[in-house]
Specification:
Helix content: 25-40%
CATH class of one domain: Alpha Beta
Number of helices: 8
Bound molecules: adenosine-5'-diphosphate, magnesium ion
Structural class: alpha/beta
Strand order of the largest sheet: 6-7-8-3-9-10
Distance between the termini: 34 Å
Shape: globular
Oligomer: single chain
Strand content: 15-25%
Length: about 260
C-alpha cells in the first residue's frame, strides 16, 4: 500500500529512515491462515504498537521479523537488509541489532542474574572483544534499578523484577530495534505501568526504535507513537491512540471499550 501513513507521530519526521518495512506478509500453519498480507512500516526512533486479540498472530509476526518463522509470502526489510534472503551468518549479525523481549522473561533459572546478562555477550562474542563485560552487566542492571540482584537467582526475584532483568538482558547489546512481545502480561497494573515507563526511558536514552505487541490498552496509551490494529491477518487500521479511539469502525471499536 502506498497510501500515506495515518497519524504518523508528530515528533518523528515522515522522512526519518525506515528501519522496518513489512509488506504483504503471509504465514499459515496447515489450513490455518494467520497472517494474510500484513503491512507495517517503522521509522527510526518510533514506537509502534501492534494491537490484536489473543491468537490473532502477534507473536507469529514478531517471530517472522527475527527469522524464527519463515513466511510463505511477502517481504521483511530490517535496517535495509532483506531478512528473508540472508544466510545464517548474516542473520546472526543483524540479530545483534534487534533486541527481543519474549512474552515470558525467559531467564535461565540455573544461572545467576550476572550469568543471565553475560549470556548474550558471550553468544555474540562481545565478551571476548576486549569489552569489559562486568561493566556492561552493571550498566544494564543500573538501567533497570536492580544492581543489588547481580548474584541472585531468578527464583529469588518477583515477577516484576524478573521482567526488568529480562529487559536489561535484551538491552545489554544496545540494539537499534527492540521487539517487545506482551511486555506487561502477567503483571499487576502498577508493575506493568512501571515496566512501560522503564521501556520508554531506556528507549529515549539509547534512541531505539520499537515494536510493541500487546492487547493492553494502557500500553497503547502510554507507549505508542502509532498503533496498528491486527485483524484477520492484516493491518486493518493504523493511527494514534486518539485517532483509533475516535474511529467509527465496528471491528476497531471493541478494542477501545474498557471493561
Ligand atoms: N508453531 C506453530 N504451529 C502451529 N500453529 C501455530 C504456531 N505458532 C502459532 N500458531 C497459531 O497461530 C495463531 C496465532 O498465534 P500467536 O501469534 O501466538 O497469537 P497471539 O496474537 O496471541 O500472539 C494461533 O492460532 C496459534 O495457535
Ligand atoms: Mg503472543
Amino acid at each position: 500500500m502506498d497510501t500515506p501513513e495515518v497519524g504518523a507521530p508528530t515528533n518523528i519526521s515522515p522522512d526519518a529512515e525506515v528501519v522496518i518495512a513489512i509488506k504483504g506478509l503471509c504465514k499459515s500453519f496447515g489450513e490455518k491462515k494467520v497472517l494474510q498480507g500484513f503491512d507495517l512500516t517503522v521509522r527510526r526512533g518510533e514506537s509502534v504498537m501492534v494491537l490484536g486479540k489473543s491468537g490473532s498472530g502477534k507473536s507469529v509476526l514478531i517471530k517472522c521479523i527475527v527469522g524464527l518463522l519463515t513466511p510463505e509470502a511477502g517481504s521483511i526489510s530490517v535496517l535495509g537488509e532483506d531478512m528473508l534472503a540472508l544466510d545464517h551468518d548474516a542473520l546472526d549479525r543483524i540479530r545483534v541489532k534487534i533486541g527481543f523481549l519474549f512474552q515470558s522473561s525467559a531467564l535461565y533459572d540455573s544461572m545467576t542474574v550476572r550469568e543471565n546478562l553475560e549470556f548474550p555477550l558471550r553468544r555474540h562474542w562481545i565478551a571476548q572483544d576486549g569489552n569489559d563485560s562486568e561493566a556492561l552487566v552493571r550498566e544494564a542492571l543500573e538501567n533497570v534499578g536492580l544492581e543489588n540482584t547481580i548474584d541472585m537467582y531468578p527464583s529469588e526475584l518477583s515477577g516484576g523484577m524478573r521482567r526488568r532483568i529480562g529487559l536489561a538482558r535484551t538491552l545489554i547489546l544496545k540494539p537499534e530495534i527492540v521487539l517487545y512481545d506482551e511486555p506487561t502480561t502477567g503483571l499487576d497494573p502498577i508493575t506493568g505501568k512501571e515496566i512501560v515507563e522503564l521501556i520508554l526511558r531506556l528507549q529515549k536514552k539509547y534512541g531505539t526504535s520499537s515494536v510493541i505487541i500487546s492487547h493492553d490498552l494502557n500500553v497503547a496509551k502510554l507507549a505508542a507513537n502509532r498503533i496498528a490494529v491486527l485483524i484477520d491477518g492484516r493491518n486493518h487500521a493504523e493511527g494514534s491512540y486518539d485517532e483509533l479511539y475516535a474511529m467509527d469502525d465496528p471491528q476497531v471499536k471493541p478494542f477501545f471499550i474498557f471493561m
